[in-house]
């Protein structure tokens, strides 16, 4: 165990430790590993995260017995980061492939434009991608290519790009001489797209946060800038951000300077507040660790009551991780006007210089086997315009690239992890397909984020053969969709008519949407439906109605207003900085396989696990100093409280798995005091969520509630029967 020792090199004689099974080297300054490390054939745990390792030694895949493997937060280029994160077998496959074919270096970087709806992202993208910054109606193209992602050779008239189309993606060869290509993602500023936009935020990308300077006022800093920085930093640790202020030509010189300085100043203030808050939390954990564990357990008033030293150290490590991975905001705001060629060139040069900085983007120079690069190009050739390929079609392309079927899996896995295509190798149905056509897939996602009834009806009524009765029915379906998020499968097929040709195509798309957390089947049959019964799908992000009986249940009363003679169990997640956009809607889909008889509201789900009721509730922050909360609750009589734990445990575990998609998100978990809930207290006492992962202390039967010294809470209402619930600090 050699963690946190400021080591820079390892001795080559390390290979003489033939019986070594565990080697932890995380949080050092190691730049390379000795070649002899591959001879440690007994190694079972190898932890290398948070170093400066760029290249792994040849033959690294020989460490086949390693089961605990951690490598994140290293500037890896060979193998690429995406390959290393998949594990030793994938590293072995990469190195074997590299030995079979010559290496290929193809510099490509993901460039993501984000900001409010009227920030000017589309026009900025069009001007950047033009050859010399001439007026937009010339439709001139960058020398090299300006084309929709995935179809080399098919050029697009950038002077005619529609505004407000949703999420768009395309390739931009920004420097033809050096072959530097940006994969440009323009995110929608409309909150309707929140449920899908986080899929497009990933490590190793350059983010451009766009602000409309002509409309900016200091009072709206958070909605224009601060919110996006919180969102991005929670999803992408150490994200690289370039601030750009558009419509600079509409501001007077002094106004322009004042607004840019204000944005710069408020960003610094927000970062300082966040860092100081995290430092304060680290200090609180240190103080708790300085106390004896028995002392922490002696009084429920104590901070981190009952939390083990092990969980406290994990919690401190989590806070340190958040502190060490703040966003990298590269410079003050760059003013930008589409009318000013110098500003257009300056921004383009800035993006190129940042992209080519090896310390910022080491992954730009990653080395790939030539066969993997050829496979990628074959998947994106102009004739491959269908929405997906079957596994066997992809395998045939693999043979053309020189990849046999057993070597194809690793290549597809890399292309999936690096965002070039979608391949879900662990999904029972979807693993038979490769979704290589991202522009068309994004078109489909955009359809289901569309909240304009007129646009939806136009798609449904495009068939001139539809009679008046059918038109009325479709109007009814659209109204139900926009209010309750419900659509039958045959109407979904009409909406997707240009993209799908058969019922099998439709089912595949619906499986994909469910995998992404966008919808679930309300009446999924266990076998083939009889008499052609229609399958209905629910899109939780569209639900607008409230469910009052769920609110009454959470407050401890039934519909007639009488109090329950049962104990309530409630786990609450608090999000002080930001609640991830679209999280509640996606979580609604994730838990569907665990519940029955569900009733959804905009912010609540009332359902059953077997015969035990559960309620999931989201409560938006009621003020600047209050956090958003998401709670999972159930109830049962005290002798049967284990049934309530059984009911909520899978739901808590699903939420923890989903939250791992936001590795830099700060949140806390608490168990609410059952006695306080029964009294209807507006601010019930909370016990630390870390207790969920700890065994019940021997001999302890009751805990005093600090809110009322005479109240005693049965230990079964705070600790689960077995510590199986994943705690947030264990990720």
UniProtKB/TrEMBL annotation:
Region (Disordered): 131-157
Coiled coil: none
Keywords: Leucine-rich repeat, Nucleotide-binding, Repeat
Superkingdom to which the source organism belongs: Eukaryota
Gene3D superfamilies assigned to the protein according to its UniProt record, in alphabetical order: P-loop containing nucleotide triphosphate hydrolases, Ribonuclease Inhibitor, ROC domain from the Parkinson's disease-associated leucine-rich repeat kinase 2
Pfam families tied to this protein: LRR_8 (PF13855)
Cellular component GO terms held in the UniProt record: cytoplasm
Polar residues biased stretches: 143-157
Record domain Roc: where: 102-358
Gene Ontology MF term list: nucleotide binding
GO biological process: regulation of signal transduction
Official protein name in the record: Malignant fibrous histiocytoma-amplified sequence 1
Organism annotation: Acanthisitta chloris
């Amino acid at each position: 165990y050699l963690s946190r020792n400021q080591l820079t090199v390892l001795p080559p004689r390390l290979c003489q430790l033939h019986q070594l099974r565990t080697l932890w080297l995380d949080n050092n300054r190691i730049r390379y590993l000795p070649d002899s490390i591959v001879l440690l054939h007994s190694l079972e745990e190898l932890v290398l995260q948070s170093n400066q390792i760029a290249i792994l030694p040849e033959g690294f895949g020989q460490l086949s017995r390693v089961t605990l493997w951690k490598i994140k937060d290293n500037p890896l280029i060979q193998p690429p980061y995406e390959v290393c994160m998949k594990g030793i077998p994938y590293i072995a496959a990469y190195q074997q492939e590299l030995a079979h074919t010559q290496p290929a270096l193809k510099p490509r970087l993901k460039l993501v434009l984000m900001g409010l709806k009227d920030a000017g992202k589309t026009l900025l993208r069009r001007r950047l991608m033009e050859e010399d910054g001439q007026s937009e109606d010339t439709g001139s193209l960058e020398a090299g290519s300006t084309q929709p992602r995935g179809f080399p050779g098919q050029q697009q008239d950038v002077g005619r790009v529609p505004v407000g189309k949703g999420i768009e993606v395309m390739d931009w060869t920004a420097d033809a001489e050096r072959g530097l290509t940006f994969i440009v993602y323009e995110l929608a500023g409309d909150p309707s797209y929140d449920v899908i936009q986080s899929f497009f935020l990933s490590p190793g990308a350059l983010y451009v946060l766009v602000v409309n300077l002509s409309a900016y006022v200091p009072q709206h800093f958070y909605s224009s800038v601060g919110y996006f920085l919180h969102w991005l930093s929670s999803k992408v640790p150490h994200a690289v951000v370039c601030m750009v202020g558009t419509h600079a030509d509409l501001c007077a010189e002094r106004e322009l300077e004042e607004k840019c300085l204000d944005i710069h100043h408020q960003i610094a203030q927000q970062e300082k507040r966040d860092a100081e808050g995290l430092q304060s939390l680290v200090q609180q954990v240190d103080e708790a660790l300085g106390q004896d564990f028995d002392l922490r357990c002696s009084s429920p008033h104590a901070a981190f009551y009952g939390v083990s030293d092990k969980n406290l150290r994990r919690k401190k490590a989590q806070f340190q991780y958040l502190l060490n991975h703040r966003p990298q905001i590269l410079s003050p705001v760059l003013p930008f006007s589409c009318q000013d060629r110098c500003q257009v060139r300056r921004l383009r040069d800035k993006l190129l210089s940042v992209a080519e900085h090896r310390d910022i983007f080491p992954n730009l120079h990653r080395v790939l086997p030539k066969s993997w690069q050829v496979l990628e190009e074959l998947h994106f050739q102009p004739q491959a315009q269908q929405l997906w390929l079957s596994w066997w079609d992809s395998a045939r392309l693999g043979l053309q690239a020189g990849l046999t079927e057993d070597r194809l899996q690793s290549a597809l896995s890399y292309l999936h992890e690096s965002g070039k295509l979608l391949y879900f190798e662990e999904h029972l149905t979807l693993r038979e397909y490769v979704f290589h056509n991202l522009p068309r897939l994004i078109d489909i996602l955009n359809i289901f984020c569309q909240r304009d009834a007129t646009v939806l009806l136009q798609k449904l009524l495009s068939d001139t053969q539809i009679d008046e009765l059918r038109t009325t029915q479709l109007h009814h379906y659209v109204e139900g969709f926009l209010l309750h998020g419900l659509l039958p499968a045959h109407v979904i097929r009409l909406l997707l008519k240009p993209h799908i040709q058969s019922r099998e195509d439709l089912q595949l798309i619906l499986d994909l949407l469910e995998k992404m957390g966008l919808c679930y089947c309300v009446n999924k049959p266990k076998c083939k439906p009889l008499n052609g019964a229609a399958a209905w799908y629910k899109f939780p992000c569209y639900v607008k109605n409230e469910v009052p009986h769920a609110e009454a249940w959470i407050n401890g009363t039934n519909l007639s207003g009488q109090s329950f003679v049962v104990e309530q169990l409630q786990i609450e997640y608090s999000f002080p900085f930001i609640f991830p956009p679209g999280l509640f809607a996606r979580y609604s889909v994730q838990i569907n396989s665990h519940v029955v008889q569900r009733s959804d509201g905009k912010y609540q789900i009332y359902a059953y696990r077997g015969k035990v009721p559960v309620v999931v509730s989201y409560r938006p922050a009621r003020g600047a100093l209050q956090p958003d909360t998401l709670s999972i609750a159930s109830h049962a009589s005290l002798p049967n409280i284990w049934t309530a734990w059984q009911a909520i445990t899978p739901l808590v575990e699903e939420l923890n798995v989903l939250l791992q998609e936001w590795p830099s998100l700060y949140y806390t978990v608490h168990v609410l005091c059952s006695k306080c809930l029964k009294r209807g207290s507006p601010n019930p006492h909370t016990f630390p969520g870390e207790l969920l992962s700890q065994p019940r202390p021997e001999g302890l039967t009751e805990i005093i509630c600090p809110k009322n010294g005479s109240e005693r809470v049965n230990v079964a209402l705070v600790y689960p029967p077995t510590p199986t619930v994943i705690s947030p600090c264990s990720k």
